[in-house]
């Protein structure tokens, strides 16, 4: 008997383990199933379909099969306006990301220093997060930056004897950037401010004290030597998020510059980010093959930028630190 | 505590502490901080003020070349006219329904998947996780038309569910839930397991009920996203399932622009979310903090 | 050990350190309950019950701006159902970017049975739109303007029935012109001079759209210079000195201080003229009732003036306007194709009363049937008569083979010429080259 117990027990145990494995596998897939099925249907199939479309001569239809190789990709890369849209988004990003960073960090520091009324101020800066791009664009375009003399900004300027400015239009000075940048800032800095406030609160207060003892002067020095380095992870998160969002900008360009009822209308050609260009190509021009090719080129760029940025900012390292 | 020498010069460093030193500058600093805060807060609230002010004015007052601070008298008829003559109430109702279903299902599905990915050791799990993460990289513009085709093939065009269902699967939320459940104290779960509870009972009975915080946080954020979505509801919903954003945009594209009505519509369209926002602010702040976590 | 093995409950102290986001569970559940209730109330949609044996047709319109138009088309549909109880028509009044919404529906296989648009070759080749030749019998065909039929004809077959015919021109305020001692301009140089002379502080001389006329003038000015785009025998002809001069003049106009830009509404809406922001505005005939109501006698209407001195185009400089409008198309894949065609025939071929009403009772359009147009009392005198006259003499359309890709290429070229001072000759030549390639690809 004694000689048989060991293997028998092992066999029993492995049977139990297998049973446990099976039940684990079952539970795993049941819990995963809504997500997996949903993503298959509404993300994976569309991605594959889009990829196939990008190799198809698909005009006014999305049936796959009229293969034309890389012609769509060639066409997109040969389009002056597509390349220009990449430049446009680059310019936009160069403005919006540092501005978002500086303003939201500034607001966070101010709110963090306020004692009384901190909650009120935080709410005031944060509440634009609740507003949609449609509503904000409408207020910006027809209220604040209305180009007529009764626009709020123009009325304000008239107090200083400045003539009304055409904010959204083909002038020599591209004032529309003021409109586009401020609307996005207003909508998103509150969001990033909250992230920064959370980061600030995790900095141990005694660090400041010991720095002082070591000769660090409060203010700029401690901000540079303590606050910023300790906000490193938070800062990276803010930069990455705002960068990815900036790259996919569509709504404010479409609603602020667009003419309203038609894809081609209005002043969209003043500043066209890639998604607007894609939208016009695919939907306005009904060139679904070319549109898909452009979309994949854009995807490749986004992934590349994210990876390069990860390298530069030490993306992987920072998360391990925490 | 702040020691200041008679000459008004700050005490030598050794004499004061950091906080003492800070307090020395405090009066001036506090004034500056509050001045800055008040000016900035006024700037941030200005668009709201312009919105509400214009909504309660006549068109003639809005387009007047002299600035009017307050509508006098407030044109409450603008509101009545809007409610009577536009589809904004239908839009509000649809948007509320869509947002609530999306919030509940999105959060639940993400929690389920996040838990499975964090806590159930299965071969190929990392592969599944990696696959999910890749989908995060693809901008939605790529999949817009094919997704439309899939939804239309399923018969979802012109329906509320056609707007709702494709938005129920949030990979980012799944990722956050996974991070969250990775930190779930192991010994508690094991205690539950020994008690004979299976994975489902552990998840639904133990893990999920202890996830209200993160659920509320992510749910509040997804409510905002759902309420403010524009392009997809515009193309899918059409006339039969208008959301509030679609109704709002129709004011922008109408061939004759009635500015007062337009601003009133903006106020009515934005107000529910602003109120919800104020009530649920705590959860939303948590959600934002979570969304800042990166991997 | 055993006694501690029960599953931990919420609030278990062992969880305290772990729960980073402690929240009031009751408040959370209250919110959820509220949410569930709201969902229930909010998601229930009124579903119309359909009687047995009834065909339901769906019909899409873009959003016309004039008050009453939506009610009108719904009324026509109802009248049809009253006469044909087994057919119901569901009207969809589409707000927003109509072409995009329609295109998406078409490629997604969810197109309505009937929709407004203009036919194009790809739709024909892909079998998306149904030929409609049999809707217009020979004797009635003579009652339609041949040019209108031509814009709806592709490869010899008719794919659309005109619903409304639109045209445009320059609205001007005689009182403003008088004050400046000016006559309505008779050529482009006079137009530029007048616009400059009429500019006075916030009041500008001319409004061509918020983009400075880049989209509204894209075809009109070359036509005024005697140029054309794609001819009836499918030749691309716009790379000529006349087109180049036309865009250079548009640039010249944009470099004056005389153009209004940044108005709340665009050129297809008359608000800028009515509110006194400009002395002259490019606009559509459809806006004329509104302009008349607001300005009464103080407006005149002329065609876009000829670009005198232009040469090298296929024709001589001429006053210019467009022959536009919307056509009824029928979805070739509709399960109710016959019923849809029958309704299209009823509504826009046989039902002259609906045609009269829709074209004249709200905004002004020219009824597509000649007999209806000739009997149209509002179009008999004054500026409306002038507009019809201009349309009949000078109205032109783009070839049905003109595609979005061609439009984008030309539009981008004009943008660069006007805004960035790009070399007009090079830009026009390149755009024509692209257009030829696209045409080749299209006819493939």
Record the SSE blueprint:
The complex is a heterotrimer of chains A (about 325), B (about 300) and C (about 450).
Chain A: H1 2-53, H2 71-77, H3 80-113, H4 118-126, H5 133-144, H6 152-158, H7 176-201, H8 206-213, H9 220-230, H10 232-247, H11 251-257, H12 274-284, H13 288-313, H14 315-321
Helix pairs in contact in A: 2-13, 3-4, 3-7, 3-10, 5-7, 5-11, 7-10, 7-11, 10-13, 12-13
Chain B: H1 18-24, H2 26-55, H3 59-62, H4 77-85, H5 88-119, H6 125-137, H7 140-153, H8 160-164, H9 171-182, H10 186-194, H11 199-207, H12 212-228, H13 231-237, H14 244-253, H15 259-279, H16 281-291
Helix pairs in contact in B: 2-15, 4-15, 5-9, 5-12, 5-14, 12-16, 14-15
Chain C: H1 13-16, H2 25-43, E1 55-62, H3 69-83, E2 87-94, H4 98-107, E3 114-117, H5 121-125, H6 138-141, H7 146-151, E4 153-154, E5 157-158, E6 161-166, E7 168-172, H8 174-179, H9 188-198, E8 204-207, H10 220-224, H11 241-255, H12 271-274, E9 278-284, H13 288-295, E10 300-302, E11 321-322, E12 324-330, H14 337-350, H15 352-360, H16 370-374, H17 382-394, E13 395-396, H18 404-420, H19 424-443
Helix pairs in contact in C: 11-18, 18-19
Subcellular location (chain A): Cell membrane
Protein name (chain A): ABC transporter, permease protein 1 (Cluster 1, maltose/g3p/polyamine/iron)
Membrane topology (chain A): Multi-pass membrane protein
Structure overview:
The complex is a heterotrimer of chains A (322), B (295) and C (444). Chain A has 14 helices and no strands. Chain A is an all-alpha fold and 322 residues long. Chain A folds into 2 domains: 1-53; 71-321, Orthogonal Bundle (MetI-like fold). In chain A, 47% of the residues are buried. Chain B is mainly α. Helices cover 43% and strands 14% of the residues of chain C. In chain C, the strands form 4 sheets. A 5-stranded mixed β-sheet of chain C has the order 2-1-3-12-6. A 4-stranded mixed β-sheet of chain C has the order 8-9-7-10. In chain C, strands 4-5 form a two-stranded antiparallel sheet. In chain C, β1 (55-62), α3 (69-83) and β2 (87-94) form a beta-alpha-beta unit. In chain C, α18 (404-420) runs antiparallel to α19 (424-443). The radius of gyration of chain C is 28 Å and the shape is globular. Chain C starts with 12 loop residues before the first helix and ends with a helix. Residues 1-23 and 38-51 of chain C have low confidence and may be disordered. At the A-B interface, α1, α3, α4, α5 and α7 of A face α1, α2, α5, α6 and α7 of B.
């Amino acid at each position: 008997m004694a000689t048989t117990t060991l293997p028998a027990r092992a066999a029993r145990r492995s049977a139990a383990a297998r049973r446990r494995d099976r039940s684990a596998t079952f539970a795993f897939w049941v819990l995963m199933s809504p997500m997996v099925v949903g993503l298959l249907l509404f993300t994976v199939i569309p991605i594959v379909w889009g990829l196939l479309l990008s190799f198809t001569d698909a005009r006014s239809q999305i049936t796959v099969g009229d293969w034309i190789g890389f012609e769509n990709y060639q066409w997109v890369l040969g389009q002056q306006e597509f390349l220009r849209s990449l430049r446009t988004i680059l310019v936009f990003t160069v403005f919006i990301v540092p501005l978002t960073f500086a303003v939201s960090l500034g607001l966070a520091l101010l709110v963090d220093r306020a004692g009384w009324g901190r909650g009120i101020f935080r709410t005031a800066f944060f509440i634009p997060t609740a507003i949609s791009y449609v509503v904000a664009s409408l207020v910006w375009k027809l209220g604040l930056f209305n180009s007529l003399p009764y626009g709020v900004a123009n009325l304000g300027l008239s107090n200083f004897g400045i003539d009304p400015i055409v904010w959204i239009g083909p002038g020599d000075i591209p004032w529309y950037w003021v409109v586009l940048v401020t609307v996005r800032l207003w909508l998103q800095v509150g969001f990033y401010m909250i992230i920064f406030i959370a980061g600030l609160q995790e900095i141990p207060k005694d660090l400041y004290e010991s720095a002082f003892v070591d000769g660090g002067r409060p203010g700029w020095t401690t901000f540079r030597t303590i606050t910023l380095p300790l906000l490193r992870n938070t800062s990276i998160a803010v930069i990455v998020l705002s960068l990815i969002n900036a790259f996919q900008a569509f709504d404010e360009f479409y609603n602020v510059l667009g003419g309203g009822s038609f894809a081609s209308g209005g002043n969209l050609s003043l500043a066209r980010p890639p998604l607007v260009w894609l939208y016009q190509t695919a939907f306005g021009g009904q060139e679904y093959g070319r549109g898909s090719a452009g979309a994949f080129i854009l995807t490749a760029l986004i992934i590349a930028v994210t990876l390069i940025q990860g390298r530069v900012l030490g993306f992987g390292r920072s998360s391990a630190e925490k | 505590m702040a020691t200041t020498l008679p000459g008004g010069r700050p005490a030598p460093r050794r004499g004061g502490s950091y906080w003492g030193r800070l307090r020395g500058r405090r009066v001036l600093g506090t004034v500056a901080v509050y001045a800055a805060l008040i000016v900035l807060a006024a700037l941030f609230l200005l668009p709201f003020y312009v919105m509400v002010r214009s909504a309660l004015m006549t068109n003639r007052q809005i387009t007047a070349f002299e600035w009017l601070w307050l509508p006098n008298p407030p044109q409450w008829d603008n509101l009545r006219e809007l409610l009577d003559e536009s589809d904004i109430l239908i839009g509000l109702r649809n948007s509320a329904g869509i947002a609530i279903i999306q919030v509940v299902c999105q959060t639940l599905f993400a929690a389920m998947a996040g838990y499975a990915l964090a806590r159930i050791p299965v071969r190929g799990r990392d592969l599944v996780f990696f696959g999910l993460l890749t989908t995060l990289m693809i901008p939605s513009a790529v999949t817009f038309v094919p997704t439309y085709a899939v939804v239309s093939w399923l018969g979802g065009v012109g329906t509320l569910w056609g707007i709702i269902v494709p938005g129920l699967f949030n990979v980012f939320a799944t990722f956050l839930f996974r991070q969250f459940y990775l930190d779930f104290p192991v010994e508690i779960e094991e205690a539950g397991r020994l008690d004979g509870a299976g994975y489902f009972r552990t998840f639904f009975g133990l893990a999920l009920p202890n996830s209200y915080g993160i659920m509320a946080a992510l749910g509040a954020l997804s409510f905002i996203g759902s309420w403010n979505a524009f392009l997809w509801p515009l193309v899918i919903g059409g006339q039969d399932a208008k959301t509030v954003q679609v109704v709002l945009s129709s004011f922008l594209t109408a061939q004759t622009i009635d500015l007062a009505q337009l601003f009133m519509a903006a106020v009515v369209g934005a107000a529910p979310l602003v109120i919800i926002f104020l009530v649920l602010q705590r959860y939303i702040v948590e959600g934002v903090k979570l969304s800042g976590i990166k991997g | 050990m055993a006694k501690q093995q029960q599953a931990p409950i919420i609030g278990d102290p062992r969880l305290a350190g772990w729960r980073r986001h402690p929240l009031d569970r009751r408040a959370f559940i209250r919110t959820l309950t509220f949410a569930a209730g709201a969902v229930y109330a909010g998601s229930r949609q009124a579903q119309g019950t359909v009687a047995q044996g009834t065909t339901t047709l769906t019909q899409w319109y873009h959003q016309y701006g004039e008050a009453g138009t939506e009610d009108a088309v719904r009324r026509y549909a109802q009248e049809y159902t009253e006469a044909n109880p087994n057919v119901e028509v569901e009207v969809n009044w589409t707000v927003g970017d109509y072409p995009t919404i329609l295109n998406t529906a078409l490629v997604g296989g969810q197109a309505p049975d009937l929709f407004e648009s203009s036919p194009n070759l790809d739709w024909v080749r892909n079998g998306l739109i149904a030929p409609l030749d049999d809707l217009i019998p020979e004797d009635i065909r003579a009652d339609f303007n041949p040019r209108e039929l031509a814009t709806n004809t592709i490869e010899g077959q008719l794919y659309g029935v005109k619903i409304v015919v639109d045209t445009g021109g320059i609205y001007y305020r005689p009182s403003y012109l008088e004050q400046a001692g000016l006559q309505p301009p008779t050529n482009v140089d006079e137009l530029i001079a007048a616009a400059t002379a009429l500019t006075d502080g916030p009041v500008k001389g001319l409004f061509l759209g918020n983009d400075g006329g880049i989209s509204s003038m894209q075809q009109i000015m070359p036509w005024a210079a005697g140029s054309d785009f794609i001819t009836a025998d499918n030749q691309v002809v716009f790379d000529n000195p006349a087109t180049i001069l036309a865009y250079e003049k548009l640039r010249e106009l944009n470099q004056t201080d005389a153009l209004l830009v940044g108005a709340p509404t665009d050129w297809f809406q008359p608000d800028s003229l009515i509110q006194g922001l400009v002395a002259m505005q490019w606009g559509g005939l459809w806006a004329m009732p509104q302009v008349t109501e607001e300005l009464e006698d103080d407006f005149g209407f002329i065609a876009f003036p000829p670009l005198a001195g232009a040469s090298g185009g296929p024709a001589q400089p001429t006053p210019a306007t467009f022959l536009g409008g919307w056509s009824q198309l029928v979805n070739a894949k509709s399960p109710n194709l016959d019923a849809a065609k029958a309704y299209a025939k009823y509504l826009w071929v046989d039902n002259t009363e609906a045609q009269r009403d829709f074209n004249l009772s709200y905004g002004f359009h020219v009824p597509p049937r000649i007999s209806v147009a000739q009997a149209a009392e509002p179009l008999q005198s004054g500026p409306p008569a002038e507009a019809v006259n201009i349309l009949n003499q000078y109205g032109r359309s783009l070839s049905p083979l003109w595609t979005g890709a061609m439009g984008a290429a030309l539009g981008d070229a004009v943008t660069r010429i006007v805004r960035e001072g790009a070399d007009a000759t090079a830009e026009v030549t390149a755009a024509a080259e692209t257009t030829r390639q696209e045409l080749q690809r299209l006819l493939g």
